[in-house]
Amino acid sequence: MGRAFVYVILGGGVAAGYAALEFSKRGILPGELCIISEESVAPYERPALSKGFLLPEEPSRLPAFHTCVGTKEEKLRHKWYKEHGIELVLGTRVKSADVRRNTLTTTTGETISYRFLIIATGARALKLEECGIRDSDAENVCYLRNLADAMRLVDTMQNSAGGNAVVIGGGYIGMECAAALVTNRIKVTMVFPEPHCMAHLFTPKIADFYENYYASKGITFVKGTVLSSFEIGADDLVKAVILKDGARIQTDMVVVGIGIRANTTLFDNQLIIEKGGIKVNGYMQTSHKSVYAVGDVASFPIQLFGGDIRRLEHVDSARKTARHAVASIMAPEKRRDLDYIPFFYSRVFTLSWQFYGENRGQVVHYGNFVSGRFGAYWVKKRRIVGAFLEGGTSEEYEAISTVIRFRSPIEDMAQLEMLGVEFALQIQMNQASQLSSHIVSQPMYAWHAFAGLAAATSIAAFAYWYGRRRRRW
């Protein structure tokens, strides 16, 4: 018993939806594409789960955030897949894969064969039991990775309104869930081992701003320690968390955000695994020519970093790697290496930040950390390799991405600090007026073509731009 398709997408997350739309745009025939997903709904925009979905008033619900509304494109409901002849195999888990025979076998025993496979299995949330914590399966211990997790979290928040919550972890999920909990009238304590929140990305100075802002909302931070155990009540619910240093924090619920692991298990002994993900080339092609991997599960070369292999955990990467894989499959004669700039963002309360590149090298902070209009550049070997901006405009966010794309040269660090985002705006303006479309299309490593951009920060221009900076910041 089995079915055969030309193209199969394994996984039903963000990447699957964007890959399906790209296949459709490129003219696949009805019946050629199949999407296999363990979830019971069509692909959706996962970022909504930690944002609009958790709002106490007018929360976002499906079908409002099916892909691909995240990029203001079509909303792909179940009906869309049916109309385009795309088979959705939902609520189905694949128990084994054979890349040599081009087959997948489901837990029901069905065999699904393919000519091309796109692995979009994403990642799973790390569980506390993997860290040796007992009773971590209590009903009021929540994670957030998929729709079922989000629904459970909403139910638990409603049952805990006016009470207390402990958030384990100071990263993306921890920070966004803490904001949602406070909005739902729940007092929050965040616990994490690092010296400050978002330690993988934020500098201590940037983190200090967000921690102070969160504190103004009533959120308490307990840093430099970890969860040791739970105190369980007669109703089998967590009543308190016990920390390694012996502290006890009473709580009505626990939210866990301690990281994720890529879902590579089906392919661990068949494809090359590197840096926690399935290794692919610039076409998103794995070590087996008929198999591609995209999104959180893929480790791919970043041209900006000299081809260094990275596995990125963000929706922007999922969307763009998915589209690139489809383009590579459908138009092999035109395929090219993916030229991707790592991009991360977050929106909580009235705050909104974006980051491009990598946070390595010497840090230059700028702006007003009191008003919430500030940013930072990371400089390595006299070139800007990373840029962060809080409270920017769309024009300013685009400008800092341009700076990273060109790895803009910098000679005067003090001047860069004084100019701040104006440096990026001037680079963008000069790039638009001086560079031909041919030069713009060249790969990142051809930065020597942009040496003329250094003139953007000449001493002669300093007074003018610094004056603008004072008015804007």
Automatic annotation (TrEMBL):
The keyword Membrane applies. Residues 341-424 form the Monodehydroascorbate reductase 3-like C-terminal domain. Residues 7-321 form the FAD/NAD(P)-binding domain. Its EC number is 1.6.5.4. It is an enzyme of class 1 (oxidoreductase). Keywords: FAD, Flavoprotein, Membrane, NAD, Oxidoreductase, Redox-active center, Transmembrane, Transmembrane helix. This is monodehydroascorbate reductase (NADH). One of its GO terms (molecular function) is monodehydroascorbate reductase (NADH) activity. It comes from the Eukaryota. Its cofactor is FAD. Belongs to the FAD-dependent oxidoreductase family. The chain crosses the membrane at residues 445-467. It catalyses: 2 monodehydro-L-ascorbate radical + NADH + H(+) = 2 L-ascorbate + NAD(+). It comes from Zostera marina.
